[in-house]
Structures are given as structure tokens and as C-alpha cells.
Specification:
Blueprint lengths: L6 H8 L3 H15 L4 E4 L2 E4 L1 H24 L10 E6 L7 H12 L4 E5 L7 H7 L4 E5 L8 E8 L1 E6 L3 H5 L3 H6 L1 E5 L9 H8 L5 E6 L5 H6 L5 E4 H5 L7 E5 L7 E7 L7 H17 L3
Parallel strand pairs: 3-4, 3-5, 8-9
Antiparallel strand pairs: 1-2, 5-12, 6-12, 7-10, 7-11
Length: 290
């Protein structure tokens, strides 16, 4: 009722008769001591108390849905789950499309929500409250308070324009640190990022002159400038056939970039969530074969 803002529409969505929904609303009003929904023009709007109830109620319903769907057993072909995956776009450009295709092929009635990771993202809270089911990304030191599964690792390289002087001259650690770098924005609060986090452990800092929150656009920016993007080889290789760019080895030794999926204890034994995590693992494994 809070989302539909209409008793009649809520009744249709719930498959109930309108008087039964009106009766339920009356009981909720008596229980909460608040009208929850009030008239506004031709429709209804939630009160402040009603608005505060919206997300906690949604979280409870998601948990209940998971409880009863798992109690019946999870059958992908007939399931109607909503799978929520949080991921940054610095992953291999083929990863999320293959994940979605894999889910829809085996569970055609299920819905999929892809959530972004950003400096404002508190993914621990999102996992705990059921706002997302898994978080996918790479961490120099992955969090220890969540379950994690390794997906794949990759070498750190730099992507530059074919016209960049380093293509002809090469570079050493000093010149690499001094060239103009482009970097993505942080993916969660306080994040330094894999590259800069490792440089900090060495007491080094590169010269970042441009930042872009849209990782998928950065290779195009590199192609038309002398900016340097440093990230995983697999990501860079996707753009070499279509853009005038070259992959160069990094003159500074980096550990391999390790990609993980993270999930909360609340979903650890859920059959549907186990199935989702297997789809994530399968999509990641398929990338190495291409």
C-alpha cells in the first residue's frame, strides 16, 4: 500500500479483495497509532511515519520471501526471485552481460537488479539488510566480516594511446609515476583503490590528473589523450581491437588483482543464493576461456 499509494491497486497486486486490504490498513493504523496513508488530491500519500516504515517493511518482506521460497526448495525454471547484484563497472565488460544471460537462461521468470558501487555505497549494510545479495569487486585486502569466494585473478598493466611516447621509449618506475594518470572514482567509502592502495604501501604516489566515475568510458579517453589507465590486463584487452590503444607492462611490481564475490551470513545457507553465487562463479570462469 505504501508503494502503490492506493488501496485498490494494492489489492490487485496482492490478489485480494479491496475490503480485505482496507481492513488490514485499519488494523495497521490502530497498531501504529498513525494514519500511515492520507488523502492528497485524487490519490494517497504516506505520512512521515509511513515513509519511515517503507524500507524496514521491504527488508522484512524480502527476508520472508527468501525464507518461504527456500522452504519449498529452489527450482530455477519456476522460481520468481529477484536477484540483486552490486558491482562496479571496472569488471571485464563481458562479465555482467554473461551473468545476466546465464541467470535468464536457467531461471527465465526471475528478475535481476544490478546495483552500482560508489563512494556513497555501504555494501556491508546493504548485504545485512537484504538490499543486495552479493557484491562483486576486487580488494587489496578483502573484508574479513563477510563470506567471500574467489572468482579470478589478473595481471596489472597500463593502457595508453598508440601515440603515447612510452610506446616507443618505454618507461621506468620514476617516469611512470610522473606521467599523467586517469583513475576511476572510489567504489565505497574510504576506498583508496587497488592501485593506489598498493603504491601507498611502497611509499609511492602517482600523478592522477583526471578521475571518472564511469570506468567504461575511460579507455576512450585514453585513446584520444596521453593519459594512462592502469588496471587489469583482461579489462584492457577488450578494447585493443576497437580503439587505437596499446597495453604496456607496469614498471612497478603489483600483486595480481584478485576479484571476489562477497555475501552475508544471512544468505549463506539459502538455496536460491547458493544458486546465484554459482552463476556468478560460472560467469567469471567463462571469461578466461574467451
Amino acid at each position: 500500500m505504501l508503494t502503490e499509494r492506493s488501496v485498490s491497486k494494492a489489492a490487485i497486486r496482492l490478489g485480494m479483495h479491496q475490503p480485505a486490504v482496507s481492513s488490514a490498513l485499519k488494523r495497521l493504523r490502530d497498531f501504529s497509532g498513525d494514519p500511515l496513508l492520507v488523502r492528497s488530491g485524487s490519490g494517497m500519500v504516506p505520512t512521515v511515519a509511513g515513509q519511515r516504515m517503507l524500507e524496514p517493511s521491504a527488508s522484512i518482506l524480502r527476508a520472508a520471501s527468501m525464507l518461504f521460497s527456500d522452504a519449498r526448495g529452489f527450482e530455477p525454471a519456476n522460481a520468481r526471485n529477484v536477484f540483486r547484484v552490486a558491482a562496479a563497472d571496472y569488471l571485464d565488460p563481458l562479465f555482467l552481460p554473461q551473468l545476466v544471460a546465464g541467470i535468464k537462461t536457467q531461471a527465465p521468470l526471475c528478475e535481476i537488479e544490478i546495483h552500482p558501487l560508489s563512494p556513497a555505497t555501504d555494501y556491508r549494510t546493504q548485504l545485512a539488510q537484504g538490499e543486495v545479495d552479493v557484491v562483486i569487486g576486487n580488494w587489496l585486502a578483502p573484508p574479513q566480516d563477510l563470506h567471500l569466494g574467489k572468482l579470478f585473478d589478473d595481471e596489472v598493466v597500463s593502457l595508453v594511446s598508440n601515440k603515447h611516447p612510452a610506446v616507443r621509449r618505454g618507461w621506468d618506475a620514476v617516469s611512470w609515476l610522473e606521467v599523467e594518470h586517469i583513475a576511476p572514482g572510489a567504489t565505497h567509502p574510504g576506498a583508496k583503490g587497488f592501485i593506489d592502495g598498493h603504491l601507498a604501501t611502497l611509499g609511492l604516489q602517482r600523478r592522477i590528473v583526471a578521475r571518472c566515475p564511469y570506468f567504461g568510458l575511460i579507455p576512450g579517453m585514453v585513446a584520444s589523450t596521453l593519459l594512462v589507465l592502469t588496471t587489469s590486463r583482461q579489462y584492457c584487452e577488450r578494447f585493443v581491437p576497437t580503439l587505437p590503444v596499446t597495453i604496456l607492462p607496469s614498471p612497478i611490481a603489483f600483486p595480481k588483482m584478485m576479484y571476489y564475490q562477497l555475501w552475508h551470513e544471512r544468505t549463506h545457507t539459502s538455496e536460491s543464493m547458493r544458486w546465484l553465487r554459482e552463476r556468478v562463479k560460472s560467469a567469471a570462469a567463462s571469461l578466461k576461456k574467451q
